[in-house]
Design a protein that fits this description.
Radius of gyration: 17 Å
Order of helices and strands: HH
Number of helices: 2
Structural class: mainly alpha
Shape: elongated
Strand content: under 5%
Number of strands: 0
Largest sheet: none
Helix content: 55-70%
């Protein structure tokens, strides 16, 4: 694997816990994924990063949804999202 630098700003718009967790786990995930690809191939890098960012975002979204369930149940809110007109 050729040398690659990673620079990121974790702005915490999801809360400081999200920024801290992302700062700890996202770089490790990228390093592990890059062991399995040809890092001289820009398309493989793009595909790897895209899949990593999607999976990371989905993971955080699932956690957020799990945490929202009890609060929403207490408020009597339906978990279903209403379609946008």
């Amino acid at each position: 694997m050729k040398d690659i630098s990673l620079f990121a700003v974790y702005d915490g718009h999801g809360g400081h816990e999200v920024a801290e967790w992302t700062g700890e786990h996202l770089p490790k995930t990228i390093v592990e994924k890059f062991k399995d690809i040809n890092t001289d191939d820009v398309e493989q890098i793009k595909e790897a990063l895209s899949s990593i960012f999607y999976a990371h975002g989905k993971f955080l979204e699932d956690i957020e949804n799990d945490l929202d369930r009890p609060r929403m149940a207490r408020n009597g809110q339906d978990r279903q999202r209403q379609p946008i007109a």
